[in-house]
Amino acid sequence: MGFEGLMESWEATWPEGRETFDRVRAAHREAALAGVDLMAQSPLATGLLGLMRAVEQADDGSLCAAVRACTKASGALGMLMNKAVENPEIVRQPMNHVMWDQWARVGGIAPDGAAGEAAIALSTVQYLLIPGWSDDLHHNQAFMDNLLHNPPKARPSRYEGAEEA
To answer: By CB neighbour count within 10 A (0-12 exposed, 13-18 middle, 19+ buried), where does 95 fall?
Structure first.
């Protein structure tokens, strides 16, 4: 299954997620223009059988740790995105982290329902299969936790004070 096939399948399970899928497509397009094939880095590059094999071969402890870490990280990212409405600075910092392109833009944001479950499943497989990915995710989790507890100061809007003038 190619990238577009994957996107079409996800759209079929979550029709109201069109905006999310457009962002994922845009991320893949930007990466391709930069000479990076995000699908080649993905566990999906080996196909569905490769994904299933990876999950089947994982021991219970590893699988549970992967699901827990990916669910926790997606939850933290969701909380950061919610706080970004009031303080956009809170997402500017994670955008500079290695995991922004490797995870957040291509599956870290887990919406409610089947699409979110699919995103967690994909992250879980990456956690299990890609060397160093789990360490990067744990580092990113600590970084996001710190941002949640110690958010950066919001920059004043360029429009603040304009009404007073």
So the answer is: exposed
Residue environment code for 115-132, b if the CB has 16+ CB neighbours within 10 A, otherwise e: bbebbbbbbbbbbbbeee
- Asked if the structure places residue 164 within a domain, the reply is no
Phi, psi of 94 (to 5 degrees): -65, -25
User: Measuring CA to CA, how many Å separate 102 from each of 31, 85, 127?
Assistant: 11, 23, 11
Cα separation, 77 vs 83, whole angstroms = 10
Residues 6+ apart with CB under 8 A from 35: none
How many structural domains compose the chain? 1
Mean pLDDT of the chain: 81
Q: What is the pLDDT of residue 97?
A: 81
Check: pTM over 0.70? Answer yes or no.
no
Structural domain range at position 45: 3-149
- Does 63 fall in a domain? yes
HSE of 131, CA atoms in CB hemisphere, 13 A: 0
Where does residue 161 fall: left (phi above 0), alpha (psi -120 to 50 degrees), or beta otherwise?
Answer: left
80 in a structural domain: yes
